[in-house]
Records
---
Amino acid sequence: MLNRAFKSIDNSPLIVFRILFGFLLACESFGAIITGWVKAVFLEPQFTFSFIGFEWLQPLPGNLMYAYFVVMGCLGLLIMIGYRYVIAMVGFTIMWAGVYFMQKSSYNNHYYLLLLISFCMIFFPANKYASLDVKLKITKEENSMPYWIPFVFITQIILLYFYASIAKLYPDWLNGTFTKNLLQGTTTKPFFLNLFSKSWFYMFIAYAGILFDLVITPLLLIKKTRNVAFLLSIVFHIFNAIVLHIGIFPFFALSFILFFYEPETIQNLFFKNKPTISEVHQSTSGALLFKFLFIPFLIIQLMLPLRHHFIKGDVLWTEEGHRLSWRMMLRERSGYLIIKIVDNKTKKETVYNYHNNLSSKQARQLPTKPDFIWQYCQRIKNEYTGKNISIYLDCKNSVNRGPYKTLIDPTVDFTKAKWDYFGHNNWVLLN
């Protein structure tokens, strides 16, 4: 295995991927401004739900978040053209990590994937051909790369699809409940509402989703089925792009297919005048990186989606272990929350109106996310600094439009509740 990992192959897939990747990063960054996403997520809310432990990461004041995203967009363009590639790639990765850990209200798996791939691309020699760095002699032109680079990409996408498929194997997905609700929530047009309500259609979508995630990477790995798998991927991802409106992710996912094809095929398609590798040889380039950075990286990616199995309770209910696990579009949650502030001296009880300082989106999410609830209670606690109060919650949730059940223990005082980073929080009641 290690001998094959260091085999020298044509680097055309990596070069084309860099160009597409940079373009998509620019689209994501500039698009966030144009669509109003930056305004809705960073400018309008009075309180930001950052990842726990990253509370120090807060949006820049005024309109500076617009400038922040403009800089990221420009870095994406620099990555695309391969100018000062390493600096641009490091800069974008740091800035995107800031965006990712700064807020959870708009959490999306493709944001996580962008972060992972951005990190990887820092270390990959993606500017060694068809780049301004080569033209300006900032770096030396090269036509090859070690096989372990596409191996990292292929392994990452295999893990993504595999865990996404396994996560769908639960009753509400298998009986079509979730796909029916999801599809009907994407349109108001009578024709599509009628189509999406047909049992044969939403059941087809449910099982097609499982099957696609499970078999697409094996089909891409097999030469005889690769082109068919490519066409299936186009249909699947374009459908998702049109119906689900999930940004750049469908196109980002399609770009990984570059690494499943023989490098010579990609070269013939995009770089017909590029010199071919005269002989296959072993390359020790990046050997230490592969052994001591990317092998541990892939092991972590293999293990992270499994962690919810070691946490008490069903992740679909508790949400503990949900993120970083490729659990994409799996369930619909709704809930209500009443926050009671008790003055321990007077015993006077008041209801805290969280709608006053949260956006409508945050207010919808707050009752359904235990980590949001805990963080928000810490905010209230700080607001009442110096006062002897207790915070109690009446919180019920529904999963996939099922019956409402109590999510949070109503007897727990949240001025004293602790957050468990790695296990089950006992104040989250088990379903």
---
Amino acid sequence: MEKQTLLTGQTLVFQGDPLHHAWDDCVAINSAGGVLIEGARIVSVGDAATLKAAHPQAEVISYGDDLICPGFVDAHTHYPQTAMIASWGKRLIDWLNTYTFPEEARFADPAYAAEIAERYLDLTAANGTTTMASFATIHAGSVDALFEAAAARGQCVVTGKTCMDRNAPDDLRDTAQSAYDDSKALLEHWHGKDRARYAITPRFSPTSTPDQLSALGALWDEHPDCLMQTHLSEQPDEVAWVRSLYPNARDYLDTYETHGLLGARGLYGHAIHLEPREIDRLAEVQGRVIHCPTSNAFIGSGALNLPALADANVPLGLATDTGGGSSFSMLRTMAAAYEAAQHHGHPLHAAQLMWLATQGSARTLHLGEEIGSLAAGHYADIAVLDLKSTEAIAQRANRSGSVWEDVFATIMLGDDRALRATWIAGVAR
């Protein structure tokens, strides 16, 4: 038997989807809970006293009144943009040309890619994030760098080579054929290797010709167990640009659908300015919409009506969208998601926000049976939150009437100081 470790504290457990059912029927906090870990996985979740009595050999780590919850799952990010986060905000296209593309060109150097991959995983772990779906750059080495850094930590990540064959600098362009060939070689090497998961990655329709989208659609058809990630309807001027580039398309989503890039394992970032047909099709095929609220606010894209998409039965995840997003913190991202929903008259409960940042995002990545919940058999990817991490939060908690008010205060006011510990595959980081 491998070494067993028992974490005790307040434990957050899910029993359903709080976006579609009453939150208090779906999410609960055990004030005297425990999580038993053996090796890389969770063995049991329950009352701390019961688990301690049944497993006297386990090392006990007491977190007191801290909240033990699943590690955060960031469903859309750009690790190559780590060094340029919080660059002065412009509109999307200007921002890409001014900041993003010059930084991504640096990833032609494998040593630089490795440096940023390590830095990114350090920064996200410090914020309680244990899994992410990240775009890489056009360079195969940028994919290798993130997968290699994650493998050394026993960490689950999703990534893929970003493909662009037009409307990008010459040194960041590939071709339809090289995008297919490079992506195929990378996915055959990495996908399913330990905890690595590959995502076929056209950046978005404006930077791919129809031939490239078709080539990547064909690759996805050949490897349907892979994910596919891209961007969709982030800004109105972007939507207009797509309309000019694809005049025969019914709408933005159709540029992907026509080329075999629409499906349940597709991850569509932003998706703010959707037409009714697009919403219906995403719901029909169960295509995943990834909400990026800090990025949407920072670049001036708009406020996603997440509750309306949930009501339409579109699967939803939550993401920082690092570099366009203005924080590595999923706490800050949850706070921004709350504020965005308020714009549409739908306040999200803390339980719904925590679910979105963990199990909800895990489900969008088709990893809900492995991560995103404190459940037996799941990987021991865990975040421990101090619910009184700063003076401002503590004074609010001292006046609160329930643990859920404490959780909400930490969501709205918290940062990396709220992270008491981050566990990845049973190892404290």
